Amino acid sequence: xxxxxxxxxxxxxxxxxxxxxxxxxxxxxxxxxxxxxxxxxxxxxxxxxxxxxxxxxxxxxxxxxxxxxxxxxxxxxxxxxxxxxxxxxxxxxxxxxxxxxxxxxxxxxxxxxxxxxxxxxxxxxxxxxxxxxxxxxxxxxxxxxxxxxxxxxx
Amino acid sequence: xxxxxxxxxxxxxxxxxxxxxxxxxxxxxxxxxxxxxxxxxxxxxxxxxxxxxxxxxxxxxxxxxxxxxxxxxxxxxxxxxxxxxxxxxxxxxxxxxxxxxxxxxxxxxxxxxxxxxxxxxxxxxxxxxxxxxxxxxxxxxxxxxxxxxxxxxxxxxxxxxxxxxxxxxxxxxxxxxxxxxxxxxxxxxxxxxxxxxxxxxxxxxxxxxxxxxxxxxxxxxxxxxxxxxxxxxxxxxxxxxxxxxxxxxxxxxxxxxxxxxxxxxxxxxxxxxxxxxxxxxxxxxxxxxxxxxxxxxxxxxxxxxxxxxxxxxxxxxxxxxxxxxxxxxxxxxxxxxxxxxxxxxxxxxxxxxxxxxxxxxxxxxxxxxxxxxxxxxxxxxxxxxxxxxxxxxxxxxxxxxxxxxxxxxxxxxxxxxxxxxxx
Lengths: 154, 423
Ligand SMILES: Cc1cc2nc3c(=O)[nH]c(=O)nc-3n(C[C@H](O)[C@H](O)[C@H](O)COP(=O)(O)O)c2cc1C
Ligand code: SF4
Ligand code: FES
Hints:
The complex is a heterodimer.
Chain A: H1 4-14, H2 24-35, H3 40-50, H4 54-61, E1 75-80, H5 83-87, H6 90-101, E2 114-119, E3 131-133, E4 136-138, H7 143-151
Parallel strand pairs in A: 1-2
Antiparallel strand pairs in A: 1-3, 3-4
Helix pairs in contact in A: 1-2, 2-3, 3-4
Chain B: H1 18-23, H2 28-34, H3 38-48, H4 60-65, E1 78-83, H5 92-99, H6 101-114, E2 119-124, H7 129-144, E3 160-165, H8 175-182, E4 206-210, H9 211-223, H10 225-230, E5 239-246, E6 252-257, H11 262-269, E7 279-283, H12 303-308, E8 317-322, H13 327-341, H14 347-365, H15 372-382, H16 392-406, H17 408-416
Parallel strand pairs in B: 1-2, 1-4, 2-3, 5-8
Antiparallel strand pairs in B: 5-6, 7-8
Helix pairs in contact in B: 2-6, 2-9, 3-6, 5-7, 6-9, 13-14, 13-16, 14-15, 15-16
The complex binds flavin mononucleotide, iron/sulfur cluster (SF4) and FE2/S2 (inorganic) cluster.
């Protein structure tokens, strides 16, 4: 399952730490980077590669909000639901996104284009309300601005 | 007023390269440090009165002083920078990480030298991708110019810095949970003692410090403790990065003397309330601090003064509510967050926080019942330090406890009106 490229990148990570287990978070991120999510088979192979049991790897995988253990959309929208965004209109934006995409929080659109997830404060509070798509942070959001941003993603 | 930590930071410009940073006086603290003994550096930081900027305000010199030194210490020792910044409403470390990565790197080298650590990690939250790119580039410049690696600047001292990008979880910011996370485990805290300074990463002596704390270190070494103390309005040394967001006219971040009043930050720097609305309350330093009321605005924002009014300085980045904000709804949002992020290690937090969040949801959406307020108060009383493994759950109780104290009648209205009167 794991490609040579994935294996090489994971092995390079193990050299940064005195114990292979420490490379687990990065290994999971490498797989997700290549595939968009982390399938069971990949968990098993990461475990083999690092000399750990699959449950050990999965116990770390399931701890992290950003590690997706289910197939997700092509683009992940993380919408900040925290205080500064909450007081500046989070609920309006969430409802707008849900309506626009025709999904609830935690779901993926029927065409597999977007998955919508809640996020912790994105450190963008001075430009709240904010969201993040595939690593890019967008602030000062309004429903109109959200529509513009969504249009940039295929 | 003198800008120290942000002197090289220009909004929306690329940060300084190593060469430019040096031309502005950078890496001079490092040169001076490498000519001093680690104990002398520790002494300077202690005399400067630097208190940890991660939220708890622990004296940095004292933390470093509890690390075993010399031949009796076990090696390698580790220095870890906490760049997890996931506190609701916090955004200050992001400015320093993106704005001046060499300042942080210089701070890490000096701090690591002061505790004789040979390995350092920057624990960065996943969402800070721009910071990651800039740190990677700055680290590589530092390696190419002998600021990192073997025999730094021709001295006997060697250090490696590794960047660790997290997978996203608020709990990873708790110092000991962070060490578990770095080891590749679930980020649950450990029982103390032994403290991490003696037995930390992989059982070796380890210091964890916040980004802003570490960024202060080169300046203390370069200019001395006296100068550092003189920057502050109070006896807690240095400047502080304050911030304001929410219902203010100009949200932002400002470096000001430690001990600047809440009023000055809010009225002079954030431009006051948005569109003439009235201040209802504010969370002074993140989601796990207690609400501050309009009549408390003349309080100085340092650790001791904020504690004296029953709140905390926390991160020093305030979230401001006006009269249109419903305290019940706001606290519901916060408690949902804390419940979601609980690591589940201890029962009061794992079971208590979801119960609190569901009770608040019921109040807000019309299912509130008489007795709900007492249920909330019961949790405030029992979910506290000493009953939980870490400060997440007690921190989660601070906004709830203070909201119940200050806005009790609004909670009661939610029961009587069958939901939030503002919805
Ligand atoms: C749930 C929780 C989250 C925390 N998150 C952070 C964080 O993101 N950054 C940080 O510096 N400290 C955070 N802390 C505080 C750390 O435990 C620790 O006190 C701090 O990193 C020590 O650094 P300092 O002494 O330089 O302040 C958190 C604490 C708790 C309980
Ligand atoms: S208080 Fe909460 S977050 Fe902290 S150890 Fe207990 S369960 Fe985990
Ligand atoms: S609260 Fe949303 S970005 Fe900080």
